[in-house]
């Protein structure tokens, strides 16, 4: 007989022979839970990577991979991704189950040498390049104050570097990706150290003055083509800080506003609506996880480790990064690697060339479906037509030396 969730039991109390009859007891109500507690299984964690400055069809512009992250975060319990995916200049989207992890730190996490420690809030310090003109510097400080007053972000102090950083950027002729350098990295590191010593900040936003581009050099990017020529050296800057101090860092370039254009691609438009790209950086850093280096409180409760990752999502031809290779070659708890054909880059690091086993999907629609199935404990191939064959038989030789096989 089927049992309902709620059952009312009208019962007669037990009457000992030596006592008088007692008043009838009130009806008891028992409830049978119809669902299992979420604690019965561990959280499902996914990593989404779109390398910076490689001309990714999705994620190579102004936060245009953010919709993918939003959709994916609604399926998984925890999403780990990096600023290139989540930053959209003046735009951002808060997601409680998404961890904002700088690229160098993400590589170290994938290799197992660093752990991620989620936090409620960070104390964010702001470093401004000495080479930023006064008016442009004021615009950035006003943006920082706006995030403090309107969003309540804990941006506690700023410092100006003692020397202009002198950013240079270019496109690598071999790989086709953008890169660059800063002429005075020591000045940047001194500024960060000052904020750490004086205000005990544990996250750093950097704003460096970038050379103003000729319109011809950025026209393709504004029309949704080519590569982001700023992105590569932005990664160089944040990598430098994270490697030295092991704390979250992200960068926003300071540039003069470009003249208005009538032929602007929507996926580049987020960078055209203000004087600064700083708000998304401050929002991301305010709750970015802290980095714990191996052998330094590495077993602290609540940390995430590479072995906790269940799936990794990559562009189809961008599988050669340190983090991607570390996940793909993991010896323990290897995650499901999913590559997206529709997201092409200037790279040529495909799974077959690297000897990596992946699930190839056409687009992010399919990728999210595969992850939903994987999270549910379902073989994704069982959702496709004629993808499940007969179960194979494995022959083996027992210790007595006699071979066994099926009859």
Structure in a nutshell:
The chain is α/β, with parallel strands linked by helices and 407 residues long. The chain is built from eleven helices and 16 strands.
Structure description:
The structure is a single chain. With 407 residues, the protein is an alpha/beta fold. It has a domain at 45-293. 27% of the residues lie in helices and 18% in strands. It contains 11 helices and 16 strands. The chain has helices spanning 66-73, 83-86, 103-111, 134-150, 185-199, 215-222, 231-245, 278-286, 322-328, 351-354, 364-375, and strands spanning 6-9, 28-31, 45-48, 78-81, 98-100, 114-117, 124-128, 155-160, 167-171, 178-182, 203-209, 249-254, 290-293, 311-315, 336-340, 359-361. The strands form 5 sheets. A 6-stranded parallel beta sheet has the order 5-4-3-14-15-16. Strand 15, helix 10 (351-354) and strand 16 (359-361) form a beta-alpha-beta unit. Helix 3 (103-111) packs parallel to helix 9 (322-328), helix 4 (134-150) crosses helix 8 (278-286) and helix 5 (185-199) packs across helix 7 (231-245). The longest helix has 17 residues, at 134-150. It is globular. Mean pLDDT is 88; it is low at 1-37. InterPro entries: DUF3326.
């Amino acid at each position: 007989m089927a049992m309902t969730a709620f059952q009312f039991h009208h019962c007669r109390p037990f009457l000992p022979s030596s006592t008088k009859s007692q008043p009838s007891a009130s009806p008891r109500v028992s409830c049978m839970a119809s669902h299992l507690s979420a604690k019965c299984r561990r959280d499902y964690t996914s990593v989404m990577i779109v390398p910076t400055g490689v001309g990714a069809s999705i994620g190579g512009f102004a936060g245009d991979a953010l919709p993918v992250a939003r959709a994916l975060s609604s399926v998984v319990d925890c999403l780990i991704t990096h600023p290139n995916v989540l930053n959209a200049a003046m735009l951002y989207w808060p997601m409680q189950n998404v961890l904002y992890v700088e690229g160098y730190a993400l590589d170290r996490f994938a290799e197992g040498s660093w752990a991620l420690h989620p936090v409620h809030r960070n104390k964010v310090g702001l470093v401004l390049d000495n080479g930023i003109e006064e008016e442009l510097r004021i615009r950035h400080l006003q943006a920082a104050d706006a995030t403090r007053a309107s969003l309540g972000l804990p941006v506690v102090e700023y410092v100006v570097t003692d020397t202009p950083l002198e950013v240079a950027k270019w496109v690598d002729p071999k790989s086709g990706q953008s890169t660059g350098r800063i002429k005075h990295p020591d000045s940047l590191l001194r500024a960060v150290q000052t904020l750490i010593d004086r205000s005990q900040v544990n996250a750093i936003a950097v704003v460096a003055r970038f050379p103003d581009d000729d319109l011809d050099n950025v026209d393709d990017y504004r029309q949704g083509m080519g590569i982001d020529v700023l992105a590569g050296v932005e990664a160089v800057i944040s990598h430098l800080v994270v490697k030295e101090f092991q704390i979250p860092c992200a960068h926003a370039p300071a540039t003069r506003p470009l003249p208005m254009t009538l032929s602007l691609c929507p996926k580049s438009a987020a960078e055209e609506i203000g004087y600064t790209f700083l708000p998304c950086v401050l929002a991301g850093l305010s709750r970015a996880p802290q980095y714990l280096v191996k052998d330094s409180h590495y077993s602290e409760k609540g940390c995430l480790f590479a072995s906790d990752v269940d799936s990794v999502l990559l562009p189809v031809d961008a599988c050669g990064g340190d983090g991607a290779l570390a996940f793909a070659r993991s010896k323990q708890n290897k995650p499901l690697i999913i590559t997206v054909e529709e997201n092409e880059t200037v790279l040529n690091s495909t799974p077959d060339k690297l000897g990596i086993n992946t699930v190839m999907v056409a687009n992010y629609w399919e990728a999210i479906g595969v992850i939903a199935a994987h999270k549910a404990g379902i073989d994704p191939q069982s959702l496709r037509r004629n993808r499940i064959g007969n179960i194979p038989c494995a022959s083996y030789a027992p210790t007595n030396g006699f071979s066994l096989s099926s009859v």
